[in-house]
Every structure is written in C-alpha cells, then in structure tokens.
Amino acid sequence: IMNHQEDAGGAINEKARNTIQNVGNSSLHKSTISAFSPCTARSHLWHALEGLDRYPNYLNRWNDEQDIDELERSLENSLKQVRQQRTMILERKKRIKELLQNVPIPSRLVTPESWEDLLQHRLDSSLSKAIRESRHFRKKQNIPSLQRVLSGEFEIHLDAYLLEDLIEPEVQDVFSVSIFCPNFCKDMISYIRQVSTILGKNDITIRPIDLDVIGLHWINNVLLHLIVRPISKHLFKNTELMEGDLDWRQGYVAAYKGQSSNTKVEHQNRLVVHTDDSEITLNVGLGDDFDGGELQFWGLRDEDDPQLLGTYSPVPGRALLHAGRHFHQVTRVTRGERYALILWARSW
Predict the structure, then answer these.
(1) Quick check: 80 and 88 in contact, CB under 8 A?
(2) What is the per-residue pLDDT across 70-91, written as a single tens digit (0 to 9) for each?
(3) pTM of the model
(4) Residue 251: enclosing H or E segment and its boundaries?
(5) Do the beta carbons of residue 295 and residue 328 sit within 8 Å?
(6) 10 Å Cβ neighbour count for 199?
(7) Which residue of 137, 293, 297, 298 could cross-link 306, Cys pair, CB 3.0 to 4.6 Å?
(8) 344 strand-pairing partners
(9) Per-residue pLDDT band at 267 (split at 50, 70, 90)
(10) 3-class SS at 95?
C-alpha cells in the first residue's frame, strides 16, 4: 500500500524510515529516534552515499536532523582516517627513499630500456618467445615501445595458441606459467633481504615489502600489462572479469621464515586460509631453499562449503594465476626462507 500522494508524477516510492512511535496522552507522536547508524553499520553509510549521488536534494526526504548529524559525523571520521593514513604513508615513503638512495640496485632489477633488455635478461625464455611471436611483434613494423605498454597506453594481446604450451592447470581454476629467469629471482631475493635489513635497523616495519615503495614499480607494470591482463582475458573473461578489464595493481614481496622447535616465533612462517583483495592474483615463487611453505587451495568465497582442492609446491620463477576470491593458505615453513612476489589486480 503506497502512502505517497497519488499525483506525485512518477516519483519513486521508498520504504518508510524505521522510526519509533510513542503514544502520548492525547495524540500519536513520531519520535526523532531511528535505527540509522552509519558510524557502526557500513551498509547505512553506503546507502546514504548512493542516495546523495543518485537523487537531487536527497536529504530533503530525511525528517530526522539527528540522522543527518550522524551521517556528517561518519563522513568526518572517514575523512580523518584518510588524511591520517595519507600523512603516515607519505612520511614513511620519504623516509624509506632516503634510507635506500645509496643502496645499489642489481642490474636486472633496474628499469629495462628496451624490449630486448626485458625479454633477454629478465623474463623466462619460453615466455619471451611467446611475446616475440605475438601479433604485435610479427608485423615487424609499428612495434609499440616498451614504455607505452608499461604505462597502459598500449594494450598487448597474447594469442591463445602461443599460451597453450606455457600455461598449466595446477588446481581447479588455478594455473601456472613461468615468468622470470632464475638469475632475476636470485637478484630479487638478495635485494629484498638487503632492504629488509636496512629498514629493520631503522625501526621501519613494512611487511610485506611493497615494490612501488622501494622503487621497483616497473616490475608491477610488467606483470599487469604484459602478463596478467592478456592472460586473464583467456582464463577468466566470463568469470572474474565479466567482460571488464584490469586497470589497478599492487605488487609486493612476502617472506616466510622457518623456526626451530625451541625458538620463539619472530617471523611470519605461515599464512592462514584467506582470500585476496583482488579480482585476479599472481603469485610468483622466487626461491626453493626451504621446507614446507606449500600453497593449498579451497573453493571460492561464495561457495557454501569450500573443500580442499589441491596443493602446490612453489617453483622459482613460476607463477600461479587465480581468482582473488579463491580460498588459499601458505603452510608452515619449517626450514629456510620462502619468498614470493605477489600481484593483486583489479578493475575500478
């Protein structure tokens, strides 16, 4: 039953607000108390933001000024958090840049200046071959510059038939592909250890190590634009991407260290079952001098009862590609150090 005027001219009828009614001595009074609580119920805040964006003069329909006060307070609190975190991040980035400015970067980790530099000295030979034989390079003319590709200005397409021999199914909807050459992985581990030591001595804890923060952003761009985007369009086009495209990434190196049975655990040695803040995740193994540290996969986040699907042992230079909503964990590392380069990719 609609309680709006019948001559509203097609106005949208909305559910009556949840207010508490009190019975007075002579009449029925509507209280100004409602269940609206954007500071504690995120769904309330999201609903209000959507209303502000969608409807002109949205707050005119709110008959409770206290609700508007609550909305304003919630937005101010969120803005305060954004500003505090922004200030902290900028200060930390500045400090890290100062500490690392005189630390030499291995040549393989320096930004490549040409396709040959990237394909010959950093990537796995089979992947380099597939890239060289893709449609953009077969023409031999108007080959896009590496800089245009890494900036996202030019989109690379990898032909499906070239990927058939590169990509292997490991677990249900989890695939592997070799990406980096062995020397690149060794240099990455060596540099990450050096960076971690320097930052640790200066009481700066960043775990995991964000590649953008330590000046290795080009690696994230290579992984997104040259590997994850084109390959995902073959593997996840109708599931995770839903005809969309990936245009955001975060890349970092995670380290897990084994502990003896009589030693207090001071380092992360495992990772519990979780999903990622991504639509597509790339997980590259960097080393193999460790025991344990296997990747185990369950079903997807929206399944009723996810079951263990399989286990994968990391291989240096080889990456797993899977949906971010795929439940997975890293089993306990019992000896040595396990390093992995992770890229989260998403579309905004």
Answers:
(1) no
(2) 999 999 999 999 999 999 999 9
(3) 0.83
(4) strand 248-257
(5) yes
(6) 21
(7) 298
(8) 250, 281
(9) confident
(10) helix
